[in-house]
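=== Per-residue structure ===
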Amino acid sequence: GYMGEFHAAGGVPRLLSELTDLLDLTAPRAFGGTIGDSVEALSARHEEQIIRSRSNPISQSGSIAVLTGNLAPRGAVIKHAAADPKLQVHEGRAVVFDSVKDMTERLDDPALNIAADDILVLRNAGPKGAPGMPEAGYIPIPRHLARQGVKDMVRISDARMSGTAFGTIVLHITPESADGGPLGAVRTGDRIRLDVPDRTLNLLVTPEELVHRMATNGTQATGPERGYAQLYDRHVTQADMLIGTPFHTQDLDRAIFIPDKVDIPSQLSSDEDHIPPFSYSLSQKRFNTRSGIIETRVISRNETWWIIVLLEIGLMVRSDQAPTSLSEE
């Protein structure tokens, strides 16, 4: 149903009334009163199909499934409640697009000869490859198939999509192709098998062939060579790690590199009134803004470190003390 139908059926208060044994009914509402007040204000319940009782659910299982397999070693997600039941166990020919741009340009190319039982594959659309993991996973149905009345196809990608989108669409494949994931080894013409009840997604090639392809894979995206884009590319995590950075996850194996020795530009360090006298502990050694020298190599992976961005110096270091700005207000 639509949001208007949900509202007409009682909306959030009606939904809460089905969850009373799971809620703290004394919890306050933002506009006064309690959650319990909202439930008590409801009229008598009548059985209906919009907001069902827990004893009469639309489905006995949740609406989202996590898949694994040789195409998604660390997982992928499908909203199977919005997928065609006939496609939830499906094997088909892969038609591969190497980027969102490639998909946009070639999706309706007659030379691809896309059939309704094919599986559309979009890669390099994840946190690193896009970059930023855009809502590109809602791959359109090719026009010639849409004209024939085709409403759904199996579509897989390392991207994401809107929560209101629907279809037999596998998303968040992890690791993504740009991070060396097996999605980068898929070729047009390969066979892929999706089995939602079994929670699996597999490329139907031998393990030896998959290993060989990944070792010689030329589709992995080349990252930026400098700047903040390079910093992001090196340290952004995957969908199964909430697409954060090791600064949040404390994944020090992927931490930013701290050189043995860095000299602060003399034109900055010479003005003692401009740079305040303070220092940060760095792996048993000292960084002092007066001397402008860092000498360190090893950082214990068992410790928690803060990121200090020295904007005036253009230098990034890690410290075990809280950040202090070098900029004057």
About this structure: The radius of gyration is 26 Å. The chain is about 15% helix and 20% strand.
